Amino acid sequence: MKSNSLNYYLCPNEQTNTLSVAIKTSARYLLPLRDKERKGFRIRTMAETKPIEISSAKMFGGYNKRFKHFSPTLGCSMTFSIYFPPSPSQSSKFPVLYWLSGLTCSDENFIIKSGAQRAASNEGVALIAPDTSPRGLNVEGEADSWDFGVGAGFYVNATQEKWKNWRMYDYVVKELPELLSENFPQLETSKASIFGHSMGGHGALTIYLKNLDKYKSVSAFAPIANPSNCAWGQKAFTNYLGGNKADWEDYDATYLITKFHNVSSTILIDQGEDDKFLQDQLLPHKFEEACKNANVPLLLRLQPGYDHSYYFIATFIDDHIRHHAQALKLS
User: Fold this and answer.
1) Are 207 and 169 in contact (CB under 8 A)?
2) Model confidence over 224-235: pLDDT tens digits?
3) What is the layout of strands, in order, in the sheet containing 8-13?
4) Cβ atoms within 10 A of the Cβ of 153, count?
5) Strand order in the sheet with 94-100
6) Cα–chain-centroid distance for residue 91?
7) How would DSSP label each residue in 265-315?
8) Active-site residue numbers?
9) Could you report the per-residue pLDDT of 126-164, keeping only the tens digit for each?
10) What is the spatial distance between Cα 260 and Cα 263, in angstroms, rounded to a whole number?
11) Other CB atoms closer than 10 Å to residue 302's CB: what's the count?
12) 99: enclosing H helix or E strand
């Protein structure tokens, strides 16, 4: 149905039982209409989806900048951070390297703790750090545990009704790159790579394998490499995806490697040998075995004495930045 006075198109969405508004009939701007239970519908405009800068700090000649925007995919306001390396000219464009964080993290942890900006500045690569889940939706139970719900989106598209807004896969793969392309002309989003830590390492591996045409390379620190067979993954997948374990395989790197094995760039993984989660939750050797069987190039580096923390990440982050910079420059 059409609202002539506002020149918006109000579209019913049977899946979410809401209405959406499309501006100038463009499907790219289908936004959920909230506040139905209050005084009428609130109509969100394109302006609310545009990123607003909320902080900026200079570092290694470039800038850490943080932004806020409304996400149509997730149905809530989201933040993300970008490190822009120093620009040699106004016309310079930078390839992008997405970082996916782990359980309990936001977009800020990596930017504040990793020290990745020094190498990114030297290599001329922009760092993109999204948040790890929707926030502020007030879903019952969303904050009851540290390993599920808020801060624990697991980079999947949830299929269970209660968690229908937890669509971090689509947010990272589709919405965020489009948002960056439309609002930051200095970013060359067609040249992209991806990496992450723990839950984010799982996200990076699965997103890369399912989108080999979108990303030039992947790496991970202590990834949850076989989530279908660990407690963290089983809890998340049961609640987000349901009890059919066949559906879980779409978000398990150890299974995906058998289906999407046309990998040209070596997968780099660093794993601390003193990581307390190594044996029960992370299971990198399962992924290593699957890579060998699929003839996929993998460099799994076991690092003696290192744990699961950002001390570990900061120690080896330069190697990962260079790994991706080489792949991005060769593309």
Assistant:
1) yes
2) 999 999 999 999
3) 2-3, 8-13, 18-23, 31-32
4) 32
5) 52-59, 62-71, 76-84, 126-130, 94-100, 187-197, 218-221, 267-272, 298-303
6) 28
7) SPEEEEEETT-TTIIIII-HHHHHHHHHHHT--EEEEEETT--SSHHHHHH
8) 198, 275, 308
9) 999 999 999 999 999 999 999 999 999 999 999 999 999
10) 8
11) 14
12) strand 94-100
- Alpha helices (runs of H) in 135-283, residue ranges in sequence order: 168-170, 176-183, 199-210, 231-241, 245-248, 253-256
CA–CA separation, 159 and 142 (whole Å)? 16
- Using a 10 angstrom Cβ sphere, with 0-12 exposed, 13-18 middle and 19 or more buried, the burial of residue 14 is exposed
Contact 83, 117 (CB under 8 A): yes
Give the closest residue to 101 by CA, choosing from 30, 172, 197: 197
Q: Exposed, middle or buried: residue 315 (CB in 10 Å: 0-12, 13-18, 19+)?
A: middle
Tokens describing residue 219: 């790496």
227-265 in b/e burial notation, b at 16+ Cβ within 10 A? Answer: bbbbebbebbbebbbeeeeeebebbbbbbbbeebeebeb
What string of DSSP letters covers 39-71? SSPBPPPHHHHS-EEEEEEEETTEEEEEEEEEE
Radius of gyration of the chain (CA): 20
Q: Who has greater pLDDT, 287 or 45?
A: 287
User: Sign of the C-alpha dihedral, residues 146, 148, 150, 152?
Assistant: positive
Q: What are phi and psi of 270, to 5 degrees?
A: -105, 135
Overall average pLDDT of the 79-91 stretch: 93
pLDDT at res. 46: 58
141 vs 37: which has the higher pLDDT? 141
Is the CB of residue 52 less than 8 Å from the CB of residue 67?
Answer: yes
